[in-house]
């Protein structure tokens, strides 16, 4: 699989990262290098091998159903470029 | 399992300009898990709180924050799966569904695309007595809810509240087994009923607690049967998805409009484009959600912050052993043990509290009579006042009143009066009957006197009655009136017959 300029531009847009047109060829080339490496990994026969999710066997950590957090509206909104009446205020998004 | 036999409902047929069409509908219902804390954080799930107050740094997606799963939410999803007779997967995993939206601070939703917690199950959707549709469930997976955007507070800005962000949802996905708008609404109703019985979702559609995405396609009669036989989707039409509906009425209207839109396209020689649409109830139409087009590239991948979710069979067995009696079973038991009709059983089991209310009202009395009483008298009055049955009359009062009727202490007509007084004042029925002198007169001497009086006062009627014995009913009515409805109607009838020598 080869990534062309159009695909590179689309991936950048989906990730909301601005990439100027003259930087696209290099980005596409980097994608292709990464995908080439992945393709190489694909040559390894892993038939019947369970994917490893942690180095030592571990169980997913759980929490009890107890309210332990929240009530920090000021902190949650502290970094917002704009906040009004307890809400984040963002440029209008309408369906 | 409901041990009643049933036949499937007829699919809805829409007559096009050229020929007939049938509908094929699949649903994805998002049900909010009833829990205190969110799926991956310790913030509260409480509805209606001050904006952004039920938000942890995990929910706000602050850098470095990690999700830790709420064990009870998993338990609730497993319970739901068991309630839908579904396969429980002891190994499941979480994936990231990537998209950008202001109310999704992470930039992705944690969901389960590849390995859902719950697999195939089924729901029996009752349409009317003897008619039901078995709808297959494809899967149930767990995911996070997004926040809420408010667009009407400012002309240039949208306001975002993250209180709902990260609340646990169960996405319940059906197979395309639903064949009409009424069935779709009945499916959601039945699903909600089961969830409420299980206590796994409040099912409050107005609060967005239960939302449905509806997939609709149309096909020619006969095509659906071919699909069912082969499970080959090429026999079905191209589907469109209508997003985010939170009312039974809108679901039905949207399906109707969308089906007609597709039929018009197809009959005009066009092709239906697979897309996401939105229903506009004001205009009575569905329209394309263009913003969703690029968002459809979700770039799913396994969430590296979360290990796979492994659960133990013993734990699942324990949850299963403690499942409550479900609607189908309760309905079957009511029919079997109380001798009520299937229709009455459906009404009485519609919600858990009403079912308990009915059973408490039966007490040692007759099930069928109690059912009639609760449905016709109590529910009739409660619905009119827009309150629950329990709010107007206690089950004990019902049991007491019906016991007095059974013992011939009061007539059924007086029983209704007693109920009215109980509703108004909350007084105990036995005391009402005693204090208000409403006891049925079974003393034949008193009834005889009343009958004699009426006969003496109405010689002309007596003559007529001798020619036309049906007129005896008039005398019975007069006696009942004279005794304030308290005379035993059977005794009155006998005495009238005897006195008139009929």
Automatic annotation (TrEMBL), chain A:
Q: Encoded by which gene? A: gatC
Give its E.C. classification number.
Answer: 6.3.5.-
**Reported function:** Allows the formation of correctly charged Asn-tRNA(Asn) or Gln-tRNA(Gln) through the transamidation of misacylated Asp-tRNA(Asn) or Glu-tRNA(Gln) in organisms which lack either or both of asparaginyl-tRNA or glutaminyl-tRNA synthetases. The reaction takes place in the presence of glutamine and ATP through an activated phospho-Asp-tRNA(Asn) or phospho-Glu-tRNA(Gln).
Organism, as annotated: Sediminimonas qiaohouensis
User: InterPro entries this protein is in?
Assistant: Asp/Glu-ADT_sf_sub_c, GatC
| Subunit structure as annotated in this protein's UniProt entry | Heterotrimer of A, B and C subunits.
Q: What is this protein called?
A: Aspartyl/glutamyl-tRNA(Asn/Gln) amidotransferase subunit C
Catalytic activity entry:
L-glutamyl-tRNA(Gln) + L-glutamine + ATP + H2O = L-glutaminyl-tRNA(Gln) + L-glutamate + ADP + phosphate + H(+); L-aspartyl-tRNA(Asn) + L-glutamine + ATP + H2O = L-asparaginyl-tRNA(Asn) + L-glutamate + ADP + phosphate + 2 H(+)
Q: What class of enzyme is it?
A: ligase
GO BP field: glutaminyl-tRNAGln biosynthesis via transamidation; regulation of translational fidelity; translation
Keywords for this entry?
ATP-binding, Ligase, Nucleotide-binding, Protein biosynthesis, Transferase
Give the molecular function GO annotations: ATP binding; glutaminyl-tRNA synthase (glutamine-hydrolyzing) activity; transferase activity
> NCBIfam families attached here?
gatC
Into which family does the record put it?
Answer: Belongs to the GatC family.
């Amino acid at each position: 699989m080869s990534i062309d300029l159009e695909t590179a531009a689309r991936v950048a847009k989906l990730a909301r990262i601005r990439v100027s047109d003259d930087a696209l060829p290099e980005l596409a080339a980097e994608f292709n290098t990464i995908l080439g490496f992945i393709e190489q990994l694909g040559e390894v026969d892993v038939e019947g091998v369970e994917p490893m999710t942690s180095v030592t066997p571990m169980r997913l950590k759980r929490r009890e159903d107890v309210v332990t957090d929240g009530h920090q509206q000021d902190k949650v909104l502290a970094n917002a470029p704009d906040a009004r009446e307890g809400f984040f205020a963002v440029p209008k998004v309408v369906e | 399992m409901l041990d009643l036999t049933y036949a499937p409902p007829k699919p809805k047929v829409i007559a096009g300009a050229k020929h007939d069409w049938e509908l094929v509908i699949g649903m994805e219902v998002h049900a909010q898990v009833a829990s205190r804390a969110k799926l991956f954080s310790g913030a509260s799930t409480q509805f209606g709180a001050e904006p952004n107050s039920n938000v942890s740094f995990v929910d706000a997606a602050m850098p470095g924050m990690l999700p830790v799963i709420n064990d009870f939410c998993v338990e609730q999803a497993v319970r739901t799966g068991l309630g839908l007779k579904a396969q429980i997967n002891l190994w499941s995993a979480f994936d990231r569904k990537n998209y950008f939206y202001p109310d999704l601070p992470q930039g992705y939703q944690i969901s389960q695309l590849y390995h859902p917690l719950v697999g195939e199950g089924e729901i029996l959707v009752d349409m009317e007595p003897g008619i039901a549709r078995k709808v297959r469930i494809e899967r149930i997976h767990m995911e996070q809810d997004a926040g809420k955007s408010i667009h009407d507070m400012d002309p240039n800005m949208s306001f975002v509240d993250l209180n709902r962000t990260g609340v646990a949802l169960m996405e319940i996905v059906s197979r395309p087994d639903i064949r009409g708008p009424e069935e779709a609404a009945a499916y959601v109703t039945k699903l909600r009923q089961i969830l409420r019985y299980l206590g796994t979702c409040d099912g409050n559609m107005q609060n967005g607690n239960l939302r449905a995405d509806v997939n609709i396609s149309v096909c020619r009669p006969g095509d659906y049967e071919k699909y069912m036989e082969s499970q080959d989707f090429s026999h079905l039409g191209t589907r469109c998805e209508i997003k985010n509906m939170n009312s039974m009425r809108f679901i039905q209207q949207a399906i109707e409009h969308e089906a007609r839109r597709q039929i018009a396209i197809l009959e005009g020689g066009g092709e239906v484009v697979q897309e996401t649409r939105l229903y506009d109830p004001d205009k009575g139409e569905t329209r394309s959600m263009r913003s969703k087009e690029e968002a459809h590239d979700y770039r799913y991948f396994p969430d590296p912050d979360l290990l796979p979710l492994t659960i133990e069979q013993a734990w699942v067995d324990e949850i299963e052993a403690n499942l409550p009696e479900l609607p189908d079973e309760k309905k079957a038991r009511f029919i079997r043990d109380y001798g009520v009709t299937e229709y009455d059983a459906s009404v009485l089991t519609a919600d858990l509290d009403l079912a308990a209310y009915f059973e408490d009202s039966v007490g040692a009395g007759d099930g069928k009579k109690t059912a009639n009483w609760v449905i016709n008298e109590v529910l009739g009055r409660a619905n009119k006042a827009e309150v629950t049955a329990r709010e107007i009359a206690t089950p004990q009062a019902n049991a007491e009143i019906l016991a007095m009727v059974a013992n011939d202490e009061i007539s059924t007509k007086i029983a209704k009066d007693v109920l009215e007084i109980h509703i108004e004042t909350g007084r105990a029925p036995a005391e009402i009957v005693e204090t208000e002198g409403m006891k049925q007169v079974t003393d034949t001497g008193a009834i005889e006197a009343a009958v004699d009086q009426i006969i003496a006062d109405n010689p002309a009627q007596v003559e007529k009655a001798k020619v036309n014995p049906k007129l005896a009913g008039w005398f019975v009515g007069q006696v009942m009136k004279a005794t304030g409805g308290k005379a035993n109607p059977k005794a009155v009838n006998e005495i009238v017959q005897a006195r008139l020598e009929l």
